[in-house]
Amino acid sequence: MHKTTKEDVFNVVWKACDTFRGVIDPSQYKDYVLTMLFIKYVGDVWLDRWQAYLERYKGDEARADWAMQKERFIVPPHARFSYLYEHRNEPNIGELINQALEALEEANPQKLSGEDGAGVFRNIDFNSSNLGDVKDKNTRLKNLLIDFSDKRLDLRPSALDGQDIIGDAYEYLIGFFASDAGKKAGEFYTPSQVSTLIAKLTKSAPGARICDPTCGSGSLLIKAGKEVGSDNFALYGQEANGSTWALAVMNMFLHGMDNATIRWGDTIRNPKLREGDALMKFDTVVANPPFSLDKWGKEVADNDTYNRFWRGAPSKSKGDWAFISHMIETAYEGRGKVGVVVPHGVLFRGSSEGVIRQKTIEENLLEAVIGLPANLFFGTGIPAAILIFNKGKGDNRDVLFIDASQRFEQGKNQNVLREKDMEHIVSLHAQFEQGQLQPGTVEDKFAYVATFEEVKENEFNLNIPRYVDTFEEEPEVDLDAVAQRIEGLERELSQVQEQMAAYLKELGLKH
Protein backbone atom coordinates (compact mmCIF):
# COMPACT_ATOMS: atom_id res chain seq x y z
CA MET A 1 0.00 0.00 0.00
CA HIS A 2 1.24 3.51 -0.87
CA LYS A 3 2.36 5.45 2.18
CA THR A 4 1.74 9.21 2.14
CA THR A 5 5.00 11.17 2.26
CA LYS A 6 5.73 14.80 3.12
CA GLU A 7 6.38 15.40 -0.59
CA ASP A 8 2.92 14.03 -1.47
CA VAL A 9 1.28 16.46 0.93
CA PHE A 10 3.39 19.34 -0.28
CA ASN A 11 2.78 18.69 -3.98
CA VAL A 12 -0.99 18.40 -3.62
CA VAL A 13 -1.32 21.45 -1.41
CA TRP A 14 1.00 23.58 -3.52
CA LYS A 15 -1.08 22.73 -6.58
CA ALA A 16 -4.18 23.82 -4.67
CA CYS A 17 -2.67 27.31 -4.35
CA ASP A 18 -3.25 27.83 -8.06
CA THR A 19 -6.94 28.16 -7.18
CA PHE A 20 -6.21 31.50 -5.52
CA ARG A 21 -3.36 32.94 -7.56
CA GLY A 22 -4.19 36.39 -8.90
CA VAL A 23 -7.38 36.55 -6.78
CA ILE A 24 -6.15 37.18 -3.24
CA ASP A 25 -2.86 38.33 -1.77
CA PRO A 26 -0.32 35.47 -1.44
CA SER A 27 -0.14 36.16 2.30
CA GLN A 28 -3.78 34.97 2.53
CA TYR A 29 -3.31 31.62 0.71
CA LYS A 30 -2.29 30.02 3.97
CA ASP A 31 -5.60 30.86 5.66
CA TYR A 32 -7.65 28.89 3.14
CA VAL A 33 -5.28 26.16 2.03
CA LEU A 34 -3.86 25.21 5.44
CA THR A 35 -7.33 25.32 7.02
CA MET A 36 -8.57 22.91 4.35
CA LEU A 37 -5.55 20.68 5.10
CA PHE A 38 -6.65 20.67 8.75
CA ILE A 39 -10.25 19.73 7.83
CA LYS A 40 -8.90 16.88 5.68
CA TYR A 41 -6.53 15.73 8.43
CA VAL A 42 -9.13 15.72 11.20
CA GLY A 43 -11.62 13.87 8.97
CA ASP A 44 -9.07 11.26 7.90
CA VAL A 45 -7.93 10.65 11.50
CA TRP A 46 -11.58 10.25 12.54
CA LEU A 47 -12.21 7.78 9.70
CA ASP A 48 -9.09 5.76 10.57
CA ARG A 49 -10.15 5.38 14.20
CA TRP A 50 -13.80 4.67 13.33
CA GLN A 51 -12.80 1.88 10.94
CA ALA A 52 -10.51 0.42 13.62
CA TYR A 53 -13.35 0.39 16.16
CA LEU A 54 -15.78 -1.04 13.59
CA GLU A 55 -13.38 -3.91 13.00
CA ARG A 56 -12.90 -4.43 16.75
CA TYR A 57 -16.66 -4.49 17.39
CA LYS A 58 -17.40 -6.69 14.36
CA GLY A 59 -19.41 -4.08 12.45
CA ASP A 60 -21.43 -2.73 15.39
CA GLU A 61 -21.70 0.96 14.39
CA ALA A 62 -23.39 2.03 17.63
CA ARG A 63 -20.49 0.74 19.73
CA ALA A 64 -17.96 2.27 17.30
CA ASP A 65 -19.75 5.64 17.50
CA TRP A 66 -19.78 5.49 21.32
CA ALA A 67 -16.04 4.74 21.40
CA MET A 68 -15.35 7.66 19.05
CA GLN A 69 -16.66 10.11 21.67
CA LYS A 70 -13.38 9.61 23.57
CA GLU A 71 -11.08 10.26 20.60
CA ARG A 72 -8.91 13.38 20.06
CA PHE A 73 -11.60 15.07 17.97
CA ILE A 74 -15.34 14.68 17.58
CA VAL A 75 -16.10 15.26 13.90
CA PRO A 76 -19.81 15.78 13.07
CA PRO A 77 -20.90 14.27 9.71
CA HIS A 78 -21.24 17.65 7.94
CA ALA A 79 -17.78 18.73 9.18
CA ARG A 80 -15.98 15.90 7.39
CA PHE A 81 -14.05 16.48 4.19
CA SER A 82 -15.96 13.65 2.49
CA TYR A 83 -19.24 15.50 3.07
CA LEU A 84 -17.87 18.76 1.66
CA TYR A 85 -16.44 16.96 -1.37
CA GLU A 86 -19.79 15.28 -2.06
CA HIS A 87 -21.44 18.73 -1.96
CA ARG A 88 -18.76 20.52 -3.98
CA ASN A 89 -21.30 21.53 -6.67
CA GLU A 90 -23.71 23.20 -4.23
CA PRO A 91 -24.31 26.92 -4.89
CA ASN A 92 -23.62 27.69 -1.20
CA ILE A 93 -20.41 25.63 -0.89
CA GLY A 94 -18.56 28.52 0.84
CA GLU A 95 -21.28 28.62 3.48
CA LEU A 96 -21.11 24.84 3.89
CA ILE A 97 -17.35 24.99 4.56
CA ASN A 98 -17.89 27.76 7.13
CA GLN A 99 -20.59 25.63 8.79
CA ALA A 100 -18.19 22.66 8.88
CA LEU A 101 -15.62 24.79 10.73
CA GLU A 102 -18.26 26.04 13.17
CA ALA A 103 -19.44 22.48 13.80
CA LEU A 104 -15.87 21.37 14.53
CA GLU A 105 -15.48 24.23 17.01
CA GLU A 106 -18.77 23.48 18.75
CA ALA A 107 -18.02 19.74 19.00
CA ASN A 108 -14.52 20.39 20.41
CA PRO A 109 -14.85 23.55 22.55
CA GLN A 110 -11.86 22.77 24.78
CA LYS A 111 -9.56 22.40 21.78
CA LEU A 112 -10.89 24.82 19.17
CA SER A 113 -12.12 27.79 21.18
CA GLY A 114 -10.34 30.77 22.64
CA GLU A 115 -10.35 31.90 26.25
CA ASP A 116 -13.52 33.93 25.57
CA GLY A 117 -15.29 30.90 24.07
CA ALA A 118 -15.23 32.17 20.47
CA GLY A 119 -14.10 29.70 17.80
CA VAL A 120 -10.58 29.53 16.48
CA PHE A 121 -11.74 29.88 12.85
CA ARG A 122 -13.65 33.10 13.49
CA ASN A 123 -11.34 35.09 11.20
CA ILE A 124 -11.34 32.64 8.26
CA ASP A 125 -14.25 33.03 5.86
CA PHE A 126 -14.66 30.67 2.90
CA ASN A 127 -17.77 32.60 1.86
CA SER A 128 -15.90 35.89 1.56
CA SER A 129 -16.44 38.17 -1.43
CA ASN A 130 -12.62 38.41 -1.54
CA LEU A 131 -12.75 35.09 -3.41
CA GLY A 132 -14.68 36.67 -6.30
CA ASP A 133 -18.33 36.88 -7.29
CA VAL A 134 -20.60 33.94 -6.41
CA LYS A 135 -19.96 31.96 -9.60
CA ASP A 136 -16.16 32.42 -9.54
CA LYS A 137 -15.98 31.77 -5.80
CA ASN A 138 -17.95 28.52 -6.13
CA THR A 139 -15.69 27.37 -8.97
CA ARG A 140 -12.57 28.10 -6.91
CA LEU A 141 -13.85 26.28 -3.85
CA LYS A 142 -14.95 23.32 -5.94
CA ASN A 143 -11.46 23.14 -7.47
CA LEU A 144 -9.94 23.38 -3.99
CA LEU A 145 -12.00 20.40 -2.81
CA ILE A 146 -11.09 18.43 -5.95
CA ASP A 147 -7.39 19.13 -5.35
CA PHE A 148 -7.66 17.91 -1.76
CA SER A 149 -9.46 14.74 -2.85
CA ASP A 150 -6.24 13.59 -4.57
CA LYS A 151 -5.56 9.95 -3.63
CA ARG A 152 -1.98 10.89 -2.70
CA LEU A 153 -3.38 12.99 0.17
CA ASP A 154 -4.43 10.12 2.42
CA LEU A 155 -3.87 11.54 5.91
CA ARG A 156 -5.07 8.56 7.94
CA PRO A 157 -2.38 7.71 10.54
CA SER A 158 -2.27 4.14 9.18
CA ALA A 159 -1.45 5.51 5.70
CA LEU A 160 1.33 7.91 6.69
CA ASP A 161 5.02 7.25 6.11
CA GLY A 162 5.98 8.30 9.67
CA GLN A 163 4.24 10.06 12.54
CA ASP A 164 5.72 13.51 11.85
CA ILE A 165 4.67 13.65 8.19
CA ILE A 166 1.73 16.02 8.62
CA GLY A 167 3.43 18.36 11.07
CA ASP A 168 6.61 18.52 9.00
CA ALA A 169 4.65 19.11 5.79
CA TYR A 170 2.65 21.87 7.47
CA GLU A 171 5.86 23.59 8.61
CA TYR A 172 7.36 23.21 5.15
CA LEU A 173 4.26 24.74 3.56
CA ILE A 174 4.20 27.69 5.97
CA GLY A 175 7.81 28.36 4.90
CA PHE A 176 6.83 28.29 1.24
CA PHE A 177 3.84 30.56 1.85
CA ALA A 178 6.20 32.95 3.63
CA SER A 179 8.47 32.97 0.58
CA ASP A 180 5.49 33.62 -1.70
CA ALA A 181 4.03 36.26 0.58
CA GLY A 182 7.26 38.27 0.78
CA LYS A 183 7.18 41.30 3.04
CA LYS A 184 3.98 40.34 4.86
CA ALA A 185 5.40 36.99 5.94
CA GLY A 186 7.30 38.44 8.87
CA GLU A 187 3.97 38.68 10.66
CA PHE A 188 3.61 34.93 10.91
CA TYR A 189 6.89 33.18 10.17
CA THR A 190 10.39 32.99 11.64
CA PRO A 191 12.89 31.32 9.26
CA SER A 192 13.46 27.69 10.22
CA GLN A 193 17.21 28.04 10.87
CA VAL A 194 16.68 31.01 13.20
CA SER A 195 13.98 29.10 15.14
CA THR A 196 16.30 26.10 15.44
CA LEU A 197 19.19 28.28 16.65
CA ILE A 198 17.11 30.00 19.36
CA ALA A 199 15.64 26.66 20.47
CA LYS A 200 19.13 25.18 20.86
CA LEU A 201 20.54 28.24 22.64
CA THR A 202 17.70 28.14 25.20
CA LYS A 203 17.42 24.34 25.35
CA SER A 204 14.83 23.41 27.98
CA ALA A 205 15.08 20.57 30.48
CA PRO A 206 12.36 17.89 30.76
CA GLY A 207 9.31 19.19 32.61
CA ALA A 208 9.83 22.75 31.35
CA ARG A 209 7.14 25.32 30.72
CA ILE A 210 7.96 27.03 27.41
CA CYS A 211 6.32 30.22 26.12
CA ASP A 212 6.32 32.39 23.00
CA PRO A 213 4.36 35.61 23.71
CA THR A 214 4.28 36.59 20.00
CA CYS A 215 4.04 33.08 18.60
CA GLY A 216 2.90 33.68 15.00
CA SER A 217 2.09 30.30 13.47
CA GLY A 218 3.87 28.50 16.31
CA SER A 219 6.97 27.19 14.55
CA LEU A 220 9.50 28.59 17.04
CA LEU A 221 7.46 27.31 19.99
CA ILE A 222 7.32 23.80 18.50
CA LYS A 223 11.08 23.82 17.84
CA ALA A 224 11.72 24.83 21.45
CA GLY A 225 9.54 21.93 22.61
CA LYS A 226 11.29 19.42 20.40
CA GLU A 227 14.68 20.45 21.83
CA VAL A 228 13.64 19.00 25.20
CA GLY A 229 14.19 15.52 23.77
CA SER A 230 11.08 13.99 25.36
CA ASP A 231 7.32 14.66 25.55
CA ASN A 232 7.69 16.06 29.06
CA PHE A 233 7.10 19.78 28.47
CA ALA A 234 4.23 22.26 28.26
CA LEU A 235 3.82 24.85 25.49
CA TYR A 236 2.14 28.24 25.86
CA GLY A 237 1.74 31.00 23.29
CA GLN A 238 -0.12 34.18 22.47
CA GLU A 239 -0.74 35.76 19.06
CA ALA A 240 -2.42 39.07 18.22
CA ASN A 241 -3.50 38.29 14.63
CA GLY A 242 -6.67 36.17 14.57
CA SER A 243 -6.05 34.10 11.44
CA THR A 244 -2.40 33.54 12.44
CA TRP A 245 -3.61 32.40 15.89
CA ALA A 246 -5.77 29.82 14.09
CA LEU A 247 -2.69 28.60 12.18
CA ALA A 248 -0.79 28.21 15.45
CA VAL A 249 -3.61 26.19 17.04
CA MET A 250 -3.81 23.91 13.98
CA ASN A 251 -0.02 23.63 13.90
CA MET A 252 0.02 22.27 17.46
CA PHE A 253 -2.57 19.58 16.66
CA LEU A 254 -0.84 18.57 13.43
CA HIS A 255 2.35 18.02 15.47
CA GLY A 256 0.44 15.98 18.04
CA MET A 257 0.94 18.67 20.71
CA ASP A 258 -2.71 18.65 21.78
CA ASN A 259 -2.12 20.10 25.24
CA ALA A 260 -0.54 23.35 24.05
CA THR A 261 -2.26 26.52 25.26
CA ILE A 262 -2.41 29.20 22.55
CA ARG A 263 -4.27 32.45 23.29
CA TRP A 264 -5.50 35.19 20.97
CA GLY A 265 -4.75 38.77 21.97
CA ASP A 266 -2.20 41.56 22.27
CA THR A 267 0.54 40.44 24.67
CA ILE A 268 1.46 43.96 25.82
CA ARG A 269 -2.05 45.39 26.16
CA ASN A 270 -3.81 42.23 27.27
CA PRO A 271 -1.55 39.34 28.36
CA LYS A 272 -3.73 36.20 28.41
CA LEU A 273 -1.31 33.74 30.00
CA ARG A 274 -2.08 34.29 33.67
CA GLU A 275 -2.40 32.37 36.92
CA GLY A 276 -4.93 34.14 39.10
CA ASP A 277 -4.13 37.84 39.03
CA ALA A 278 -0.45 37.31 38.20
CA LEU A 279 1.35 36.60 34.94
CA MET A 280 2.23 32.95 34.36
CA LYS A 281 5.94 32.18 34.77
CA PHE A 282 8.03 29.99 32.46
CA ASP A 283 11.34 28.13 32.36
CA THR A 284 11.96 29.26 28.79
CA VAL A 285 10.59 32.28 26.90
CA VAL A 286 11.39 32.62 23.19
CA ALA A 287 10.10 35.06 20.58
CA ASN A 288 10.61 36.90 17.33
CA PRO A 289 8.53 40.01 18.14
CA PRO A 290 7.62 42.58 15.46
CA PHE A 291 10.67 44.78 14.84
CA SER A 292 10.46 48.32 16.25
CA LEU A 293 6.65 48.24 16.40
CA ASP A 294 4.98 51.63 16.34
CA LYS A 295 1.99 52.23 18.68
CA TRP A 296 2.79 49.10 20.67
CA GLY A 297 0.87 50.15 23.81
CA LYS A 298 2.88 52.80 25.63
CA GLU A 299 -0.33 54.04 27.24
CA VAL A 300 -0.75 50.63 28.93
CA ALA A 301 2.90 50.37 29.94
CA ASP A 302 2.74 53.62 31.88
CA ASN A 303 0.07 52.09 34.15
CA ASP A 304 0.81 48.39 33.82
CA THR A 305 -1.17 46.16 36.20
CA TYR A 306 1.60 43.55 36.17
CA ASN A 307 4.54 45.93 36.76
CA ARG A 308 6.42 44.57 33.73
CA PHE A 309 8.01 47.92 32.88
CA TRP A 310 9.52 48.93 36.23
CA ARG A 311 12.90 49.42 34.51
CA GLY A 312 11.21 51.97 32.27
CA ALA A 313 9.08 51.98 29.13
CA PRO A 314 10.51 52.59 25.66
CA SER A 315 9.24 55.34 23.36
CA LYS A 316 5.78 54.81 21.86
CA SER A 317 7.26 54.40 18.36
CA LYS A 318 9.61 51.47 19.08
CA GLY A 319 8.28 48.54 21.08
CA ASP A 320 11.31 46.22 21.06
CA TRP A 321 12.25 46.66 24.73
CA ALA A 322 8.59 46.41 25.76
CA PHE A 323 8.47 42.84 24.44
CA ILE A 324 11.88 42.04 25.96
CA SER A 325 10.74 43.41 29.33
CA HIS A 326 7.59 41.27 29.20
CA MET A 327 9.66 38.19 28.40
CA ILE A 328 12.14 38.78 31.22
CA GLU A 329 9.35 39.37 33.74
CA THR A 330 7.58 36.12 32.76
CA ALA A 331 10.73 33.97 33.15
CA TYR A 332 11.14 32.16 36.46
CA GLU A 333 13.39 33.90 38.97
CA GLY A 334 16.70 32.14 39.50
CA ARG A 335 16.47 29.88 36.46
CA GLY A 336 14.38 31.26 33.57
CA LYS A 337 15.97 31.72 30.13
CA VAL A 338 14.94 34.14 27.40
CA GLY A 339 15.87 34.05 23.70
CA VAL A 340 14.67 36.92 21.51
CA VAL A 341 15.29 38.16 17.95
CA VAL A 342 15.86 41.92 17.73
CA PRO A 343 16.91 44.58 15.20
CA HIS A 344 20.41 45.95 15.88
CA GLY A 345 19.05 49.29 17.10
CA VAL A 346 18.06 47.54 20.32
CA LEU A 347 21.79 47.11 21.05
CA PHE A 348 22.74 50.77 21.02
CA ARG A 349 19.78 53.18 20.88
CA GLY A 350 19.81 55.68 23.74
CA SER A 351 17.19 57.57 25.74
CA SER A 352 14.62 55.34 27.52
CA GLU A 353 15.90 52.23 25.72
CA GLY A 354 19.41 52.92 26.93
CA VAL A 355 18.17 53.12 30.53
CA ILE A 356 16.33 49.77 30.29
CA ARG A 357 19.33 48.12 28.61
CA GLN A 358 21.69 49.39 31.33
CA LYS A 359 19.45 48.08 34.12
CA THR A 360 19.16 44.58 32.62
CA ILE A 361 22.96 44.42 32.27
CA GLU A 362 23.52 45.70 35.81
CA GLU A 363 21.13 42.98 37.05
CA ASN A 364 23.41 40.45 35.32
CA LEU A 365 20.62 39.08 33.13
CA LEU A 366 22.30 39.39 29.72
CA GLU A 367 24.26 36.32 28.69
CA ALA A 368 24.91 36.58 24.94
CA VAL A 369 24.59 38.88 21.92
CA ILE A 370 24.69 37.09 18.56
CA GLY A 371 24.74 39.03 15.29
CA LEU A 372 23.02 37.28 12.36
CA PRO A 373 23.52 37.67 8.59
CA ALA A 374 21.43 40.18 6.64
CA ASN A 375 18.44 39.10 4.54
CA LEU A 376 17.50 36.08 6.65
CA PHE A 377 14.00 37.29 7.44
CA PHE A 378 10.98 37.70 5.21
CA GLY A 379 9.84 41.30 5.18
CA THR A 380 13.19 42.93 5.96
CA GLY A 381 16.69 42.73 4.54
CA ILE A 382 18.24 44.26 7.64
CA PRO A 383 20.47 42.08 9.80
CA ALA A 384 19.08 41.05 13.18
CA ALA A 385 20.58 39.78 16.40
CA ILE A 386 19.64 37.24 19.05
CA LEU A 387 19.79 38.24 22.72
CA ILE A 388 20.00 35.52 25.37
CA PHE A 389 19.03 36.45 28.93
CA ASN A 390 19.52 34.10 31.87
CA LYS A 391 17.96 34.61 35.30
CA GLY A 392 20.22 31.89 36.67
CA LYS A 393 23.52 33.30 35.46
CA GLY A 394 25.15 33.07 38.88
CA ASP A 395 28.46 34.83 39.56
CA ASN A 396 29.52 35.08 35.93
CA ARG A 397 29.06 38.76 34.98
CA ASP A 398 30.67 38.45 31.54
CA VAL A 399 28.77 38.70 28.23
CA LEU A 400 29.47 36.60 25.12
CA PHE A 401 29.47 38.44 21.78
CA ILE A 402 29.35 36.52 18.49
CA ASP A 403 29.45 38.07 15.02
CA ALA A 404 27.93 35.50 12.66
CA SER A 405 26.99 38.12 10.06
CA GLN A 406 29.28 36.60 7.40
CA ARG A 407 28.37 32.95 8.11
CA PHE A 408 25.62 32.12 5.63
CA GLU A 409 24.72 30.52 2.35
CA GLN A 410 23.24 32.79 -0.29
CA GLY A 411 19.74 31.69 -1.30
CA LYS A 412 17.48 32.70 -4.17
CA ASN A 413 15.29 35.07 -2.13
CA GLN A 414 16.71 34.84 1.40
CA ASN A 415 20.08 34.03 2.88
CA VAL A 416 20.30 30.83 4.93
CA LEU A 417 22.18 30.04 8.14
CA ARG A 418 24.35 26.99 7.56
CA GLU A 419 24.14 23.94 9.83
CA LYS A 420 27.85 24.08 10.66
CA ASP A 421 27.62 27.74 11.69
CA MET A 422 24.62 27.09 13.94
CA GLU A 423 26.46 24.21 15.60
CA HIS A 424 29.52 26.41 16.14
CA ILE A 425 27.47 29.21 17.74
CA VAL A 426 25.67 26.74 20.03
CA SER A 427 28.97 25.10 20.99
CA LEU A 428 30.62 28.42 21.92
CA HIS A 429 27.57 29.44 23.94
CA ALA A 430 27.62 26.11 25.83
CA GLN A 431 31.31 26.59 26.64
CA PHE A 432 30.57 30.10 27.90
CA GLU A 433 27.75 28.82 30.14
CA GLN A 434 30.10 26.20 31.58
CA GLY A 435 32.69 28.88 32.41
CA GLN A 436 35.23 27.57 29.89
CA LEU A 437 35.78 30.88 28.02
CA GLN A 438 38.04 33.58 29.43
CA PRO A 439 37.47 37.31 28.85
CA GLY A 440 38.92 38.67 25.62
CA THR A 441 39.03 37.35 22.07
CA VAL A 442 37.75 33.78 21.87
CA GLU A 443 37.92 33.47 18.11
CA ASP A 444 39.39 36.12 15.84
CA LYS A 445 36.75 38.19 14.02
CA PHE A 446 33.97 35.95 15.40
CA ALA A 447 33.65 35.70 19.18
CA TYR A 448 34.61 37.82 22.20
CA VAL A 449 33.88 37.64 25.94
CA ALA A 450 33.41 41.08 27.49
CA THR A 451 33.61 41.76 31.22
CA PHE A 452 30.93 43.82 32.94
CA GLU A 453 33.51 46.61 33.42
CA GLU A 454 34.21 46.65 29.68
CA VAL A 455 30.50 46.92 28.82
CA LYS A 456 30.15 49.67 31.44
CA GLU A 457 33.11 51.56 29.90
CA ASN A 458 31.23 51.39 26.60
CA GLU A 459 28.27 53.05 28.39
CA PHE A 460 26.27 49.79 28.09
CA ASN A 461 26.34 50.00 24.30
CA LEU A 462 26.11 46.44 22.94
CA ASN A 463 26.95 47.20 19.31
CA ILE A 464 28.86 44.07 18.29
CA PRO A 465 31.79 45.78 16.43
CA ARG A 466 32.76 47.42 19.73
CA TYR A 467 33.71 43.95 21.01
CA VAL A 468 34.32 41.67 18.03
CA ASP A 469 37.04 43.22 15.86
CA THR A 470 36.18 42.43 12.25
CA PHE A 471 38.53 45.04 10.77
CA GLU A 472 40.31 43.77 7.66
CA GLU A 473 43.54 45.57 6.81
CA GLU A 474 43.77 46.83 3.28
CA PRO A 475 46.78 45.38 1.44
CA GLU A 476 49.66 47.87 1.04
CA VAL A 477 49.61 49.73 -2.26
CA ASP A 478 52.82 49.65 -4.35
CA LEU A 479 52.84 53.24 -5.63
CA ASP A 480 55.71 52.65 -8.11
CA ALA A 481 53.78 49.78 -9.73
CA VAL A 482 50.62 51.91 -9.90
CA ALA A 483 52.55 54.79 -11.55
CA GLN A 484 54.02 52.39 -14.13
CA ARG A 485 50.57 50.94 -14.82
CA ILE A 486 49.08 54.44 -15.36
CA GLU A 487 51.96 55.34 -17.69
CA GLY A 488 51.33 52.18 -19.72
CA LEU A 489 47.59 52.89 -19.96
CA GLU A 490 48.25 56.43 -21.15
CA ARG A 491 50.52 55.08 -23.92
CA GLU A 492 47.83 52.61 -24.99
CA LEU A 493 45.21 55.39 -24.99
CA SER A 494 47.43 57.62 -27.17
CA GLN A 495 47.91 54.79 -29.68
CA VAL A 496 44.15 54.13 -29.83
CA GLN A 497 43.42 57.84 -30.37
CA GLU A 498 45.94 57.98 -33.24
CA GLN A 499 44.36 54.89 -34.84
CA MET A 500 40.84 56.38 -34.48
CA ALA A 501 41.98 59.66 -36.10
CA ALA A 502 43.41 57.68 -39.04
CA TYR A 503 40.10 55.76 -39.49
CA LEU A 504 38.04 58.95 -39.39
CA LYS A 505 40.32 60.64 -41.93
CA GLU A 506 40.01 57.60 -44.21
CA LEU A 507 36.19 57.85 -43.97
CA GLY A 508 36.31 61.57 -44.71
CA LEU A 509 34.81 62.43 -41.34
CA LYS A 510 37.84 64.35 -40.01
CA HIS A 511 40.60 66.34 -41.74
What does this entry look like structurally?
With about 500 residues, the chain is of the alpha/beta class. About 40% of the residues lie in helices and about 10% in strands. It is built from 18 helices and twelve strands. The chain has helices spanning about 5-15, 25-55, 60-70, 80-85, 95-105, 110, 135-150, 165-180, 190-200, 220-225, 240-255, 300, 320-330, 345-350, 350-360, 420-435, 450-455, 480-505, and strands at about 210, 235-240, 260-265, 275, 280, 285, 335-345, 365-370, 385-390, 400-405, 440-445, 445-450. A ten-stranded mixed beta sheet has the order 3-2-1-6-7-9-8-10-12-11, sandwiched between helices. It has a two-stranded antiparallel ribbon with strand order 4-5. Helix 1 runs antiparallel to helix 7. The longest helix has about 30 residues, at about 25-55. The radius of gyration is 28 Å and the shape is globular. The N and C termini lie far apart (about 90 Å). About 40% of the residues are buried. The model has no long low-confidence stretch (mean pLDDT about 90).
Q: Helix amount, in percent?
A: 40-55%
> What shape does the CA trace take?
globular
Identify the strand order in the major beta sheet: 3-2-1-6-7-9-8-10-12-11
H and E order = HHHHHHHHHEHEHEEEEHHEHHEEEHEEHH
How many H/I helical runs? 18
Look at the structure and give the mean pLDDT. Answer: 89
Radius of gyration: 28 Å
Cα end-to-end separation: 88 Å
Low-confidence segments, given as residue ranges, are none
Structural class: alpha/beta
**Could you describe the largest sheet, including whether it forms a barrel?**
10 strands, mixed
Q: Percent of residues in beta strands?
A: 5-15%
Tally of DSSP β-strands: 12
